[in-house]
Structure formats: C-alpha cells, structure tokens
Amino acid sequence: MCLFVGIENQRCESLKKQVVRPSGMGTPRFGKPGGSAWIRTRGGMIRRNTLRQLAAAGIFVAVLILLGTAQASPHTGSGDAVHSGHEGMDMSMPMQDANPNHELQQAILLQDKKESEFNHHLAGFFVVLAGFFLLGEAKLRRRWDWTRFAWPVCFLACGLFLLIFSDTELWPFGPQSWWYGLTHNSEDLQHKTFAVVLLTLGVLEIERVRGVLKSAWAAWAFPVLAVAGSVMLLFHEHHTGMHGVDHMAVMRRIQAEHFNFAIAGGGIGVVKGLSEMHTRWKTIFTKSWPLLLIVLGVLLMRYTE
After folding, report:
1. Do residues 234 and 251 lie in contact, with contact meaning Cβ atoms separated by under 8 Å?
2. Which residues of the chain register pLDDT less than 70?
3. Residues 6+ apart with CB under 8 A from 280
4. pLDDT value, residue 59
5. Is residue 65 part of a domain?
6. Which residues partner with 41 through β-bridges?
7. Distances from the Cα of 12 to the Cα of 16, 21, 83, 187, 302, angstroms
8. Looking at the 3D structure of the chain, how many domains does it have?
9. What does the pLDDT read at residue 77?
C-alpha cells in the first residue's frame, strides 16, 4: 500500500511540473513555456496557429491586391488591342455622321448607365444596412428578437433585386430570353451569379441564426463565397463603358472601382473567417467585418460610370 501511495505522489508531482499558466490567461495549459504551441511576447503568450492564420490572411490579401493591380492598371498592349479594329476608319469623321442611329444609341447607353449605377447604389444601401444591423445586433435583440434575422434578409433582398432587375434586356423587361442572355453575354451571367451568391449567403445565415445549420462547413460558407465573389469582381466585364470618345478613361475608372470592391469584399471574407475561429482576437474580428461591410456599401453607393 505504501508503495502504491508513493507512485501516485510522484505522478502528481510530474503533472504539476507540466502545468503552465501563460501570463494574461487564467486557465492553466499543459506544455512548456516557449514550446511548440506558444510564443512568448511582451503582451503575453500567443499561439503559433493564430500567427499562421494571420500570416495566411495577409498573404491572401497581398495576392488579391497584386491580381487586382494587374487587371486595373492600363497596359499599352490592351490599348492597342482596343484600337486595332480602327485602322481603316477616318477618325476625323464625326461619329454621329458615321452612324445614322447615333442619337438612339446614345439614349440607350445613357439608360443603361443610369440603370447600372442605380443597381450598384441600391446594393450598397442593403450592404450598409446589413452592417449596421450586425453592429447593433446585441442591443436590438434585447428589444426586438426578430432583428437577428435582419442582416441576412438584407442579403436576400439585394440578391433578389439583382436576380430580377440587373439586366432589363432579358425577359420580362426585354425581348431576350434568359437562356440567350446567359449564354451570349458574360456580363449578364456574372450579374446573375452575384445574385445567386447573395441569395445563398442570406439563406444559409438565416438557417444558422435559427439554429438549424450547426455544421462547421456552414460557418465557412460565408467567407468562401465572399472571397470567391471578390475574385470574380477582378474579371468583371462592363460593356456600358466601352462606348464614347473617352471610353478608355471610363473603363479605367470602372476597373478601379471594381478593384476597390474586390479588396473590400476579400477583406470581409478573410475577417469573417477569422471571427469564426476561437482565438483571443475573436471579439475584434467579430466587430471588424461589419465595419468592412459598411465600407463596401459606401463604395457601392458612390459608384459612377
């Protein structure tokens, strides 16, 4: 019996040596200070996994910036390609004389421009509204519990509007069928894809709020779709700005604006993903990504062609 008690005492002593309380943390953790799981800093102990996650997020944003810069910056070759079909034209001849339907075309282009700007502005309004609902969610839910569904509904409303009204040349507003428009116009296809992404995000987040979806993949659906949509913005085609005397300047401005949308959207996806992880910065990330939503919404509301 004495031998058994002595062995148990030795086991307890060995366990006590392994328990470490990192500075600034109340819960004891097993492992040696400075071991593979922790890094000691002036502010306390930081997990290596957290540093890897932050580094990966920084690398992703840097790559996104480089890709967007390559798309948004004007190149000499692209300018030559745009003008390559005009060698046989007399550029001194006024464009309105060369095209008898010039006034009609200008009216159509002006209408398309107003429609596109309105779509961006309305989408921005819904995104800003979702951001404010997220920031005030804790206080709002104390008075109105239904407000927990408010920000996903903003995504649903935005996606539904874009799905129906983003391209009015399609039925029921225009003569083209959806099949023809989506198979012959890449801009229409991209608009409808963005609408489906917004609708998917709204439905998934509503189900998460209801407690129906509790799987790990549901938590990562928003970050993945947000990043994918942001990458798509870098390659978004915009036919409205490809006409007129100053079409090159207009296209550069449109590309720069969509590049800003992509950076903000990519940041939202990355920070939202980090907010789903259990780290000591979880609260900061949870409050940060709604602010980025508001930034994206303001950029959309300031969009001009």
Report:
1. no
2. 1-100, 239-245
3. 46, 50
4. 53
5. yes
6. 44
7. 6, 17, 81, 68, 66
8. 1
9. 37
Residues 133, 135, 138, 142, CA torsion sign: negative
Q: Are 24 and 11 in contact (CB under 8 A)?
A: no
In a domain, 85, yes or no: no
> Phi and psi for 302 in degrees, rounded to 5?
-95, 5
Domain assignment present for 241: yes
Picking from 72, 123, 107, the residue whose alpha carbon sits closest to that of residue 303 is 123
227 assigned to some structural domain: yes
What's the full length of the chain, in residues? 305
CA distance 277 to 219: 10
Cα within 13 Å of Cα(75), Cβ side: 8
CA 43, CA 142: separation in Å to the nearest integer? 35
Domain region containing 188: 48-72+128-301
Within 8 A by CB and 6+ apart from 36, the residues are 48
- Cα separation of 269 and 106, whole Å? 39
Please state the pTM of the whole predicted model.
0.65
Q: Output the six-digit token pair for 245.
A: 């005397």
Kindly give, in sequence order, each residue whose CB lies less than 8 Å from that of residue 189, ignoring residues fewer than 6 positions away: 181, 182, 183
**Which residue matches tokens 């994206």?**
296
